[in-house]
Specification:
Length: 439
Amino acid sequence: MATSPRILLVDDEPDLLDLMELTLVKMGLETDRAVSVAEAQARLRQTHYDLCLTDMRLTDGEGLDVIACASALALPVPVAVITAYGNAGNAVAALKAGAFDYLAKPVALDQLRTLVKSALAIPESTQADDPTRELIGQSVVMQDIRARIAKLARTQAPVHIAGESGSGKELAARLIHRLGNRSGKPFVAVNCGAIPETLMESEFFGYRKGAFTGAVADRDGFFQAANGGTLFLDEVADLPLSMQVKLLRVLQEKKVRKVGATTEEPIDVRIVSATHQNLSALVETGRFRQDLYYRLNVIDLVMPSLRDRAKDIPEMARFLLDKLGGADVKLDRDAEQALCAYAFPGNVRELENTLERALALCEGQHINAADLNLTPPTLPATGTAPGSKYPLQDYLDQMERTAILEALEQTRYNKTAAARLLGVTFRSLRYRLERLGIE
């Protein structure tokens, strides 16, 4: 009888370990934990693992030490590292040391699952012949999207993907890369809104030793890491104007000058960008350079919101339940109707989050409407004007609800990261989500 793949998780944050372990167990995998380099190295020498996921910063050393140990084994273990946003140097160093991929914090569960499936060569069942089938749905709009992605993959022109948060922009970007002739090269995803402005130039272009205080060695940036492949600029509208000028020059010249360097080096990168904002409107208001807009928006792709293709929701829900480990769990008719009637402002990401919660709460093998806990926005009580501060509790609840939703959106529905952003404990956030009915 074949045993399930075993994965070693190395991190000193208990909440993140809990999150990753829960996700991987639902995929049918076995996991072990380590909270330090020493413990990780001991486990790697004692037990065979199919994959190791390690943080780059641990209490007693670096993730690079874990990579070195895993690579030196008689049967080497593939390692993926977890890095903080705004630290491309660590990711590049890890890749050079032998890591096969990396994840950025806050860890997005869909990216974690994709990485693990890739590392373990978990079959994609019916998706194997046509990767675009990962975009679930038989509506006319989704058929058009799949056909357009297949066409875009055959070109090298820059692509700009528009659409609401959670609508699948990064998935579309990855499919464009996988279907194209750069599929054997790196795909590097960068959240432009998560990098401090003071670090942007060094993170994108790299730097030379001695370029500034703390630059103790040469480091490559995102462009060098993606050389030959695809660089995905997520939330590109968040780039400050000063960085937009520098990015435009790189796209025009196809050369990068590291911070502190006197010469430029050629790069070969396909650019795919995305944002939930209206770029053309930002150009009109002067918040985004028009010349850069035309460089990025050579070909556009608009991802539809989930409410614009409501007929796809039942199929999407069944796919997500299977992905979450609930292949034997069924949606009752009232649950399907509730899902189709709900607006899903967070789109597919919110749908997955809703189903993951329902899967944990449902009794038996059926999910009903109550298990979904969908709470549509309610109008103020009769006699109370919209935006009124009375009754006080209703007003405070609305303010709290807005702040929590914004934090979840910024962290891609990672509750651990959202709690940290809000300045509350994970337990406190979970209580508030349940009380307000917006989990």
